[in-house]
């Protein structure tokens, strides 16, 4: 009977402490000298040439051009004119053709700090303003002077205002006023002179 709580003991004698368990692999790590002098190269395998399937579309077209009409003539044409399909890259055939363009908005260019420090934008704006004023002066010189019509002439040179004359018939000039609201004749003269 086994002891309680302990595994069964086997009867094999274990090797000493110097024993290494597992397979012994001969080390070939000789450093840089061995890496440069002894390259592990693999010889390429000889691949058999792949036989492509027959291209019946091309062969049928050629047979019709040669004048074949019966099945026997077609079979003979296939026998002597063995046309195979051209080898194409099958893996790239399913890849959709994407147009040569970039979608989305381009990134914003970085801020030129050197131009900001030197006030380059202010100088450029001032140069643009100077050039604009020169162009405007040239345009104004080129324009023909517009002749004034009667309305614009009268607007610039208004006619003198006629003094309003208080005309009365001769028979009313000799009549004196019946009512005098001024306190004395001097006050009346002063009011009329104003």
TrEMBL record:
It holds the Pfam family CFAP77. It comes from the Eukaryota. InterPro entries: CFAP77. PANTHER family: CILIA- AND FLAGELLA-ASSOCIATED PROTEIN 77 (PTHR28617:SF1). This is CFA77 protein. It comes from Pitta sordida. The gene is Cfap77.
């Amino acid at each position: 009977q086994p002891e309680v709580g302990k595994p069964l003991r086997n009867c094999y004698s274990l090797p000493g402490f110097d024993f290494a368990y597992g397979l012994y692999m001969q080390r070939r790590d000789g450093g840089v000298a061995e890496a440069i002098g002894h390259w592990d190269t693999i010889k390429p395998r000889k691949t058999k040439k792949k036989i492509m399937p027959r291209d019946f579309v091309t062969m049928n077209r050629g047979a019709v051009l040669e004048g074949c009409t019966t099945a026997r003539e077609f079979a003979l044409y296939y026998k002597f004119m063995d046309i195979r399909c051209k080898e194409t890259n099958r893996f790239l055939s399913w890849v959709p053709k994407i147009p040569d363009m970039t979608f989305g908005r381009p990134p914003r260019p970085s801020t030129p700090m050197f131009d900001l420090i030197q006030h380059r934008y202010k100088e450029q704006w001032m140069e643009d303003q100077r050039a604009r004023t020169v162009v405007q002066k040239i345009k104004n010189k080129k324009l023909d002077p517009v002749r004034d019509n009667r309305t614009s002439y009268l607007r610039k040179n208004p006619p003198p205002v006629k003094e309003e004359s208080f005309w009365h018939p001769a028979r009313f000039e000799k009549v004196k006023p019946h009512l005098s609201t001024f306190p004395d004749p001097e006050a009346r003269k002063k009011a009329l002179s104003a």
